[in-house]
Specification:
about 45% helix; 9 helices; about 250 residues; single chain; alpha+beta; Beta-Lactamase; Arc Repressor Mutant, subunit A
Length: about 250
């Protein structure tokens, strides 16, 4: 807790519960957080007064509307999202598959924009969803383009946990795939975060040449047959390159 305000840290711990739970009572927050009831009562009173929490007629708490306002401010200020959107729309309309835009947030990747597939069968993904950098094509294409020291530090401190049948859990195998993805300029994943799905991703770079995000298409494996992959890969790479160029990156 050095250099951290304990009350703020505990308050964030309470708010963090709402990533998983839509509604919580005072007692549920006490049980889940392990924070004493008197402290929880005091903190949620302040959080409610400031608009971070809202209490319903049953006495249960939900996230307040202030988060919607802050969330929109963050979204509006992400230049990459504004620049990428029309290119993502064209890619979705061309291929008919879901298109995702992902950026790095420390040791995770976070979805900041999504355009749904035109098909009735679709994946469960949404803006705000997080995934580890090692799992899934779009996350891994970011990892593949990190500086060597940063990449090795990440691999040293990260346990590769399986999510679905295709998740890569061996570090030597992951290193080889990352090297190949970096050389080829794209990543492809099979059933890594969700079974019977395929994702194809390409990196997005800023004006300094640093990777700042990933662009991907994803869908059920039945729609990603081997004979179609070269065309899909080329179109995803081209769209990612276009976004990179608009961010000031030139090869």
């Amino acid at each position: 807790m050095q250099n951290k305000n304990k009350t703020v840290v505990k308050s964030m711990k309470l708010l963090d519960l709402f990533r998983t739970y839509r509604k919580l009572s005072l007692n549920e927050m006490v049980q889940l957080s392990g924070i004493p009831k008197t402290s929880v009562h005091r903190m949620i009173g302040s959080l409610e007064d400031m608009g971070f929490l809202s209490k319903d007629s049953e006495g249960k708490y939900t996230l307040g509307m202030l988060f919607l306002e802050f969330g929109q401010l963050v979204a509006d200020r992400l230049d990459i999202r504004k620049i990428a959107y029309p290119i993502m729309r064209d890619l979705r309309d061309d291929l008919g598959e879901a298109v995702h835009l992902i950026i790095r947030d420390q040791n995770e990747a976070i979805y900041i924009e999504k355009l749904d597939t035109l098909h009735p069968v679709r994946l469960f993904t949404k803006v705000g969803r997080r995934s580890p950098l090692y799992a899934g094509a779009c996350s891994r294409i970011i990892l593949a383009h990190l500086p060597e020291k940063e990449l090795e530090a990440y691999l040293d401190e990260t346990e590769l946990k399986p999510f679905e049948t295709g998740t890569i859990t061996e570090k030597d195998k992951l290193r080889a795939i990352l090297q190949q993805s970096r050389a080829n300029g794209y990543a492809i994943s099979y059933s890594e975060l969700e079974n019977q799905t395929v994702s194809i991703a390409a990196p997005i770079f800023d004006h300094t040449g640093h990777v700042v995000g990933g662009l991907s298409i994803a869908g059920p494996d039945s729609r990603f047959q081997d004979e179609h992959l070269p065309t899909l890969i080329e179109k995803v790479k081209r769209a990612a390159d276009e976004i990179s160029q608009k961010l000031g990156h030139f090869h």
